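Appendix B. Raw example, untouched.
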Amino acid sequence: MDINQIQELIRLVSKAKLAEFILKEGDFKLIIRNQPGPESAVTATPVVIPAAPPLVAMAPAAAPPPAQPEAQAPPPSPDSEANLLTIKSPMIGTFYRSPGPDKAPFVKVGDRVDTGATVCIIEAMKLFNEIESDVKGKIVKVLVEDASPVEYDQPLFLVDPA
């Protein structure tokens, strides 16, 4: 891993406001931590770990089952879609609409959200990150299926600010 890749990871971790990010590749281990304070300082600590004997494979953790599809509101007309706001993914990971497999989704189509309200969870490297709305309005459309992978800056929800 070169310095440019490390700097890019630091930038992404800082922007996503993660408390800690750990990357392991063979004997290379990178830990990036956000320091709490008036200006969030980010530190990166590359560590070379000695080769370890192979670990016994463990069964993968059970993923939450996909939620039942809900009745979606009819898609807005192209004219009205121009005034809709988008809530985007701040990171790469797996999108979950609810806090657990047997729990209700954080938001549904038709729900009103305020700035700072939790709208979903994105799992990244075994960490579950609550994603908060940066807009205020009514959820018009959920753009991502539950338990599906999402990319950085991918639209997740359409919100009508009216």
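End of appendix B.
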